[in-house]
Amino acid sequence: MSSMSRPLMFLGTGSDVGKSVLAAAFCRILKQDGFRVAPFKAQNMALNSFITSEGGEMGRAQVVQAEAAGIEPHVDMNPILLKPTSQMGSQVIVLGKAVGNFSARAYYEYKPRLLSIVRESFERLSAQYDIIVMEGAGSAVELNLKEHDLVNLSMAEMAGARCVLVGDIDRGGIFAALLGSFLLMEPQEQERIIGFMVNKLRGDPALFSRPPNSGVEILEARAQRPVLGVIPYFDHIALPEEDSVALGRRMDRAARERSRAGTFLGVVRLPFISNYTDFDCFEQDPAVALEYFNRPDRVFHFDAVILPGSKNTLEDLDFIKRSGLGDAIVSYYKAGGTVVGICGGYQMLGLRVRDPLGVESGLREVDGLGLLEMETEMFKDKITCQVEAVAVGSAGESPCGEEHLFGYEIHMGRSTATGETRPVFKILRRDGKPVEIPDGLATPDQRVWGTYIHGVFDNDWFRRRFLSDLRERMGRGGVSPESSFCYRKWKEEQYDRLAEHVRRHADVARIYRLLGLR
Fold it and tell me: What is the DSSP pairing of strand 441-442 with strand 448-451?
């Protein structure tokens, strides 16, 4: 493929080796050095997604990378997104729009039709940017899947990319992982590999790099490729993560953080949880400790319980009822607790959820928790849009001086109020177009509320107000509205710190030379 841009691709020896993070780091490094840079991943599988300003749905990893590059996310950066809906199938999203639910076998047969779409997305980006920072998926050498590969070495060939092979030394076996992956490549594929990166090293990097007979020397001698970086493990930088592997790492954080936090929030870890990036802002706010939990006996430990988004609302609702979580949450509310639902979690708070067309599940109807007087039905058409809204008071007016909040909607369901409830928000714009649409519902005592708007807590003023109201309800006094934590500013600081960390431990100048940039 001819291209005006110079593609740099990060391939991996496996999943969770750090491809996404290193791609984000180089998006910020290249931006800092004056290049116009954009991210690209042909196909992503993710629990979390984002809605662009044009109403297209894409994976969160490329959104993070676009933010690091200082540009607006676009679906061309992730033309194919797979969102798991069951153990054997996923919703397939092409260029931001859902095209249907596919079993693994059906998608395997459908996949060849997507090649031209991937190529065209890459070409559009290449015409606009100096450098495309590309990312592979999982292992680059899954030999049994290679024939229909869209995202690893075949994508590298299509793009004419120079590739860096990334291995995770923290999990052990770094030599087998890097050298084994390299040797399993065909000679023409090996030619694309400009070097290795050893990622997540704990301890002194010099111990791996210092001659004689260092790890670096062994890798370079056996593969005849340079080691372009030995990147230390870090825990002083926090970035949004998008899959269940990352979510598992979060389960143990709350206990050590609660001692320094004033508010303790619990998010139900649903089997098909999605868009838990809604709560990244709480994880970083020093006033909050947050825990993901799935045991009924944990419910009464929290100042508020949040039901998050779900890729399969009926199955997850069935799970929380069978597990005892549903009864525990209802008892928690009756004892004075606060319960919040976002998107699928909001639907679960109602009287029942119906899926007569089997849009998400084989289940056709499941009774909800009955905390909000509403019913939800699933439809085939998916609502995906960015929104601008105001919070609505009991009199139908904004109690916050018409201060606006921003977020996005991703849902198949439509909810209808059936009794004494009131909207939480009024949507003023969808994808930039003026509207007046009520969103969400709350009980009269405001201790149960829900919304379809993802990202609502990313709005600093609304998050502070929520925490202040919660603390006052708990008799602890409110949170100062002048609280200094700003989520957007914090994210920018993380991208800069990530770039600084990788610059210190990677040979950026050599990578530039190998790309022909210097």
Answer: antiparallel
